[in-house]
Amino acid sequence: MKVGNADAGRGIFLAPLAGITDLPFRTLCREQGCTFAATEMISAKALFYHNKNTEELLRTGENDRPLAVQLFGSDPDIVAEMALRIEDGPWDAIDFNMGCPVPKVVNNGEGSALLKNPRLAGKIIKAMTDRLRKPVTVKIRSGFDAGSINAPEVAKILEDAGASAITVHGRTREQYYSGKADWSVIRRVKEAVSVPVIGNGDIFSAEDAGKMLKETGCDGVMVARGALGNPWIFSEISALLSKGERIPKPAPEEKMAMVMRHLDLQIAQDGEKNGVLKMRKQIGWYLKGARNASAVRNAVNSSSDLSEIRELITAAFS
Q: Is 100 an active-site residue?
């Protein structure tokens, strides 16, 4: 599938996850078969006020392609102006977040709060597409709550405003990440618009990805929590979709090598102290199913010594 002029291959996307999907993690997922990714979400207002923290979120590399940069906000002029400011960066699309459920974002009228104000959402996307050359994509949820499942109607407004692709997470804002994703809403969005639709929600295996594509008719799938501690999910999805093959789960030694590589990439980017701090939660996800996982996780979380952390990882996967 295509996102604008960018080739997204078989449409196996990595979801943007705040504090998680930075360049090192995206690099590992791409090596395993992820065909499109996005930066962590970035506040348009933070860009407007030159917040230094946004520079870290914009980090990328020459092999980090194709890539979208994801913005969030609620002021059409500010969002469009900031999108224009960064448009010439090394990304293939500008993605707009209408799915974030966290209170500090929603209470500002941003993220999934915009599902309650489709008219404003349309104005934001129109302001962006009027000024930008690069494609604008949007990530939404099924609705704000169970009483307002309006993703098909919102998607049509976004398409009319110029959106080039729409990702749909089959949960409401009120669900956060609980319960079950309603894939039928993704199917209804696909039926409502002509632009590519990417399905998101409850993809924890290659079989889940294949089932979503079949049930919804969506053009691509987006993996979020299913990739945590498990970048191999992309190779599994790729093998199933391209060859109909089911590849074996990684052996313990392969898991250990991946954790060590992730740790090395993180330290190379952020330095030893910050890299170790950032990796604590990632290591915890990799440890799922490992020997004495809980005890090792606690030991990692209380240690700042790189050599000790490497020893703990080695012991867990030996």
A: yes
